[in-house]
Amino acid sequence: MILRRSMLALVPASAVAQRSLRRTPEQMEGPFYPRAIPDDADADLRRVIGASREARGRPLLLEGFVRNIVGVPLPGARIEIWQADSQGIYLHPSDRIAQRDTGFQGYGRATADAQGRYAFRTIRPGRYSGRTPHIHLRADMPEGGAPLTTQVYFPDEPGNARDGLFSRTPEAERPLLVARLEATDDGQRAIFDIFTSRLERGLPSR
Predict the structure, then answer these.
(1) Distance between CA 1 and CA 76 in Å, rounded?
(2) Cα angle vertex 44, ends 43, 50, to 5°?
(3) What is the pLDDT of residue 12?
(4) CATH number for the domain harbouring residue 188
(5) Nearest CA to 125 among 154, 166, 93, 96?
(6) Which of 14, 41, 92, 99 has the maximum number of C-beta atoms within 10 A of its C-beta?
(7) Residue 203 lies in a domain
(8) Does residue 204 lie within any of the structural domains?
(9) Beta-bridge partners for 180
(10) What is the DSSP letter of 178?
(11) pLDDT over 60 (residue 177)
(12) How far apart are CA 46 and CA 106, in angstroms?
């Protein structure tokens, strides 16, 4: 399913100036990257092709820009996300897969547009033992090379302070891992900009 163009008119370029242009910190991939990519792997995780209903849980629009550390957009960057459903269950055979929400895709892909924008239609991930809610994200840059793998956190989660991975991140870098939240008519918008140290390619910054 292709996201509507209105969903990609996401964040004005001036929003980039509100955040220090430092490289997004890397975080571990974790144990739940899908062993097999689902047939439906588009950017709309709330609807699975052939399912009779949408995913359960609080709707979330995850969106942002992919840029290098001097603010130049990186069109064509390939973004993957994977996350728990509203019950805290991943699309992975090591998890309680028989109990997972079959209306939730669990994994998605998107490609940054000409301005470096990306967007996913998803849900707020549920809690599971030992971790604060988060979304795994990997960005492959258009010129290749090593991908940037990280995790997206939410500012209103009390579990952040107790999360081992988040708390081990240097304090100065933690804000770069936390999305900016806005309310929408049916849920929330989470704005998460990705900054990479790759300087090659990209459109002139405007």
Answers:
(1) 18
(2) 125
(3) 45
(4) 2.60.130.10
(5) 154
(6) 92
(7) no
(8) no
(9) 191
(10) B
(11) yes
(12) 9
> Does 133 reside within a domain?
yes
206 burial via Cβ count (<10 Å: 0-12, 13-18, 19+) = exposed
- Cα–Cα dist 183/170, whole Å: 29
Q: Does residue 173 surpass a pLDDT of 90? A: yes
> Which residue type, as a one-letter code, is found at position 55?
A
pLDDT value at 89 more than 50: yes
One-letter amino acid of 189: R
With H, G, I as helix, E, B as strand and everything else as coil, classify residue 122: strand
Q: Would you say residue 205 lies in a domain?
A: no
Report the run of H or E that residue 164 belongs to, with start and end.
helix 164-168
Ramachandran assignment for 88, one of left (phi > 0), alpha (psi -120 to 50 degrees), beta (any other): left
Segment (H or E) for 5:
helix 5-8
The answer for residues whose C-beta is within 8 angstroms of residue 68's C-beta and 6 or more apart is 74, 195, 196, 197, 198, 199, 202
Q: What is the largest CA-CA distance in the chain?
A: 48
Whole-angstrom CA distances from 100 to 45, 125, 126, 177 are 14, 12, 11, 27
The pLDDT assigned to 85 comes to 98
Report residue 81: phi and psi, to 5°. -130, 150
Q: What is the pLDDT, as a whole number, of residue 143?
A: 77
Domains in the chain: how many in total? 1
CA distance linking residue 190 with residue 173, whole number of Å: 18
Q: How far is CA 140 from CA 18, 88, 112, 143, in A?
A: 24, 26, 10, 8
Structure-model confidence comparison of residues 39 and 17, the more confident one:
39
Structural domain including 160 reads 5-11+23-196
